[in-house]
Automatic annotation (TrEMBL):
Belongs to the ZPR1 family. Signal peptide: none annotated. InterPro entries: Znf_ZPR1, ZPR1, ZPR1-like_arc, ZPR1_A/B_dom, ZPR1_jr_dom. This is Zinc finger ZPR1-type domain-containing protein.
Length: 179
């Protein structure tokens, strides 16, 4: 089997901030090992590269958790796919994935920046201080991504990965029948 292009997007580069990161994933058959996904992402501008090979999982929903404890953790690189919901319980943040076509490839700090930017004037008069403290490494928090497509990732050994399973839509009906 020839490697097949399964993901092809132009993303914002986490290093130089330009929309010049060409992200391509290929699916190929590695014989006995099974199907593998080869990621080959490269920024045309600053030549930052992300390379990875992992087993192809048939889109299991995933929950990623990262505890952010210090300034160093703010530099960890995170990819949130268009299907990933972002949750930071300590900061009361929940960003639900909408029908966006692009994922977001950035750092933990970049995520907080985006949130502050989106909140805009809602942060006037000293509100959002918690988020600013988190961004300065003065507040610990947990970054959670729940992704039904299973393609989001956090580039850190510290992350916890949990598969989660969605209840079938008719679950509540079944419960009703039961009672
Ligand atoms: Zn770049």
């Amino acid at each position: 089997m020839e490697p097949k292009l399964i993901f092809d997007q132009r993303l914002k580069c986490p290093i130089c901030g330009m929309d010049t990161l060409l992200a391509k994933d290929y699916l190929y058959d590695a014989g006995e090992v099974g199907e593998m996904v080869l990621s080959n992402w490269e920024c045309e501008n600053c030549h930052y590269r992300y390379r990875d090979v992992k087993p192809y999982e048939h889109s299991h929903p995933k929950r990623l958790e990262l505890s952010v404890e210090n300034e160093e953790d703010l530099n960890i690189i995170v990819y949130r796919s268009p299907f990933g919901n972002l949750i930071i319980p300590e900061l009361s943040i929940e960003v639900i994935s909408k029908d966006v076509s692009q994922g977001s490839f950035t750092t933990v700090e970049g995520i907080l920046d985006e949130i502050l930017e989106n909140l805009g004037s809602l942060c006037d008069n000293g509100r959002c201080q918690d988020i600013k403290n988190a961004k300065d490494g003065k507040k610990k928090f947990t970054l959670i991504i729940e992704d039904t497509s299973g393609t989001s990732f956090i580039k850190s050994k510290k992350q916890k990965l949990l598969n989660f399973y969605l209840f079938p839509l008719n679950c509540s009906l079944l419960l009703k029948d039961y009672f």
